[in-house]
Amino acid sequence: MIDLNADLGEGFGRWHLTDDEQLLSVVTSANVACGFHAGDPVTMRRVCELAAERGVRIGAQVSYRDLAGFGRRAMEVPPDELTAEVAYQIGALDVFARAAGTRVSYVKPHGALYNRVVHDAEQARAVIDGVLLADKGLPVLGLPGSRLLELAEGAGLPAVPEAFADRAYTEEGTLVPRGQEGALVTDPEAVVARSVTLARAGVVASHSGTPLAIHARSLCVHGDTPGAVDLARRVRERLEASGVRVEAFT
């Protein structure tokens, strides 16, 4: 059994990056941009309504305040400021989720923040404090072995490890930085095959070919990948054909 998540609502005004409606017919959890790296109130509301109609869980994808860099630039944010900004983003999305008859079901950092809280305990603590400020029971989605999930567990929050179908891994089990060659897995068949191996065996090959043990409860397919809808559909079909039940973790 595994959850299938994707980053959605990644647009702003007239700019739209993700095919939200089509992806919501495939995934079981939606990481919705909350306005700091992408997403505006109209987009957030629309995605929440579509997700609620389809029974897809809504997650707050919190980020550094970086619209120009799509949340993928390294930033230095004081912990108390980051805590407030995380809580603010969760609260903003939850208004639209509740108006649609559901709620925010989990939190997942985005981009530079996601990678930062793998090792940076101070920034990870600030994120967890922000989650607690918004809702003391929200699950936190993150990289297995990260400081983020360690601190989430310590704070009594459900810690949900995830894997990436379309990102390359280092030998240490972290994601290969996007600026490096081979950081993205672009061959659709390779993405599909990796997904099945991750779900059934909890193993993925690192960038150098070393097998890594990754026991994940959720699998991410990026919504901004070219052909993301077809790729997500193929991943889900192959998972189910392989005997893996695809359903939300919450």
From TrEMBL:
Catalysed reactions, as listed in the record: 5-oxo-L-proline + ATP + 2 H2O = L-glutamate + ADP + phosphate + H(+)
Matches recorded under CDD domains: LamB_YcsF_like
UniProt entry keywords in alphabetical sequence: ATP-binding, Hydrolase, Nucleotide-binding
One GO term of the biological process aspect: carbohydrate metabolic process
Enzyme class: hydrolase
EC number from the UniProt entry: 3.5.2.9
Pfam families: LamB_YcsF (PF03746)
Recorded GO MF terms: 5-oxoprolinase (ATP-hydrolyzing) activity; ATP binding
Record's function text: Catalyzes the cleavage of 5-oxoproline to form L-glutamate coupled to the hydrolysis of ATP to ADP and inorganic phosphate.
Assembly with partners or alone: Forms a complex composed of PxpA, PxpB and PxpC.
PANTHER family listed in its UniProt record: 5-OXOPROLINASE SUBUNIT A, UNCHARACTERIZED PROTEIN YBGL-RELATED
Family: Belongs to the LamB/PxpA family.
Protein name according to UniProt: 5-oxoprolinase subunit A
